[in-house]
Amino acid sequence: MVLQTLRKGASGWIAKIFLVVLTLSFVVWGIADVFRGFGTTTVASVGSTDISADAFRRQYLDQLQQLSRRAGRAVTPEQARAFGLDRQILNQMIADATLDEKAARLGLAVSDAQVAREIADNPAFRPPGATAFDPAYFQQLLRSNSITEQRFVDSEKKRAVRDQVLQSFGAGVAVPQVLLDAVNRYEGETRAASYILVTAAVAGPLPAPTEEQLRAYFDAHKITFRAPEFRKIAVLALTPAALAAGEAVSDADARSFYDRNHARFGTPEQRVVKQIVFTDAAEAKAAFEKIKAGTPFEEVATARGLSAKDTDLGLVTKAGILDPKIADAAFALAEGAVSEPVEGRFGTALVEVTKIVPGMQQPFEAVKPMIVADLQLDKARRALLDKHDAVEDERASGATLAETAQKLGLTLQVFDAVDRSGRDPEGNMVAVPGGADVIGGAFATQPGVETDTVQLPQNGGFVWYETAGITPARERTFEEAKAAVTVRWTEAETEKAIEAKAKELFDKAQAGTPLAEVAGAADRPIQVAEPLRRGRAEGPFSTESVAAVFDVKEGGFGITAAASEPDKVVFQVTKVTVPESAPEATQVAAELSRQLENDLLMQYLDAIQKEIGVKVNDRVYAQAVGAGTAN
């Protein structure tokens, strides 16, 4: 991630190159006869430039590790290939080699001094808050990304040369005003539509299905009622929570924790405190004598030109008073009392307490269960890794999970039947520790085969599991599936009834009956949606159904699916509002310009590749990514 940030800052055209590389995927992999066997160590060749299998595999593994770090778990090569990571990396390397080849033919070069200046000027190589390049920080960043300085400098020199090739195309492409106007009209157009929402209530009640109808539906849709494959999974979950119950906590430990954390189990005493600060101790003494003789505290403060805001500290705890001596004096007074002069941090002060709110402390016995549970969990976290090692030792000795759990005093959970989606035969979700990782792994292995340990996120523990049995998928009988068949038949017939009713209302409107009359005859209110905009859901209109509204001319009628299926919407477009022509400088113009630049760059790279030739060795490529054949 850091290296990506560094590279982003290294050149203003890097983002454009990246976009071109992604787009180039459709170009490189679409070239006819691009896969041909040649050599034994070359994955691809671009003109006279070869991409070695070692270089490709090194970059592939680097990206695989980064992907694993971002995912928070190991990503297998098979998963990476499913994501298309291998092709993306090869596409990028081919694009880089294409530009390198073209730059070499044009005789372009960048000096070491220029690259050094660019690195020194790059803010990414400065520590946070620094304004100058820091060589030590630069080296730290390189080490954290496992790259040498020479390798990085060479990479940036190549990027700078490629930048020179690309700078002659695409920058500052002017967007024609006619295109801006067209896009603005398309994006800014709004519509108003009157509509009738057709629901199951409008369609009317369905007759109860007959046995023959249900059997016919079952026979026509047998595959949807097929019982899926189930797996019996044995799971040993080692988590702090699972270990906590076995940890002993003495009364003395619990009492000690309670005494050390009094504030956690109650609220401290609070007091309304006022103070007058004097720079002269003698003045403070004289003021105290006046208050002692009966002069109100507020009157003494007013005589010194102080307002209530200047003297009132508010309702505070002892810890909330910054000056410890003032705090001690304030919390030693009785309510309504005034202290003698106190030598505080900011002068000599008189302190008055006008209100005391007593603190509240929960007794030890009331909070003891919570304290014991917290201490057990804390001990369990510390013991987790030792217990993990003990489980691994047992597994290494050949013990089953059941034997391991019994020997170490752990709980083995057995889930008799779980399908791929994590449900039991009744369709209920099963809370399998480790979730999809464990279920997916159980379906990928046969009984008796050892599986990988699943590490739970945020040090939540570890899960070991075994596939203990397999119940193959099978056809259910009609009697087994009858309840589900009834539900599905009802849903299908309801959908048909709604669709038929909507078509009936639509046909009436199309024939000339005003939509309001059509709605009234169906005992449904006519409603209005406005303004409707492309790509934005509104009321019963989903984004897809809004698109249907924009396919109908003003005054025309339409029928579309509602946001809540299987409801339908019968509508009439009552108003079309088209905006004026687009202003000269808009966000739309900037986006269009960027897209035109990318299109030009893609075409340019495509032309270069056709000129110099691109070939990919499918056999070496497949070996490099660990596949039997090329993707």
Search tags:
single chain, 631 residues, alpha+beta, Triger factor/SurA peptide-binding fold, 4 domains, four-stranded antiparallel beta sheet, 25 helices, 17% strand, extended, disordered N terminus, transmembrane helix, cell membrane
Low-confidence stretches: 1-37
Find the CATH topology of the largest domain: Triger factor/SurA peptide-binding fold
How many domains would you count in the coordinates? 4
CATH architecture of the largest domain: Orthogonal Bundle
What is the number of helical segments per DSSP (H or I, 4+ residues)? Answer: 25
Estimate the global geometry from the Cα principal axes: extended
Strand order of the largest sheet: 14-3-16-15
Please state the CA-atom Rg, rounded to the nearest Å: 38 Å
Q: How many β-strands, per DSSP? A: 17
User: Regarding CATH, which class of the largest domain?
Assistant: Mainly Alpha
Strand content: 15-25%
> What helical percentage do the residues reach?
40-55%
The name of the CATH superfamily of the largest domain reads Porin chaperone SurA, peptide-binding domain
Largest β-sheet summary:
4 strands, antiparallel
Question: Can you walk through the features of this model?
Answer:
With 631 residues, the chain is of the alpha+beta class. 49% of the residues lie in helices and 17% in strands. It folds into 4 domains: 2-171 and 596-624, Porin chaperone SurA, peptide-binding domain (Triger factor/SurA peptide-binding fold), CATH 1.10.4030.10; 190-223 and 480-577, no CATH class; 230-247 and 367-471; 269-358, Roll (Chitinase A, domain 3), CATH 3.10.50.40. Strands 14-3-16-15 form a 4-stranded antiparallel beta sheet. A hairpin with a 6-residue loop joins strand 15 (557-561) and strand 16. Helix 2 (14-28) crosses helix 5 and helix 18 (364-396) crosses helix 19 (401-408). Mean pLDDT is 84; it is low at 1-37.
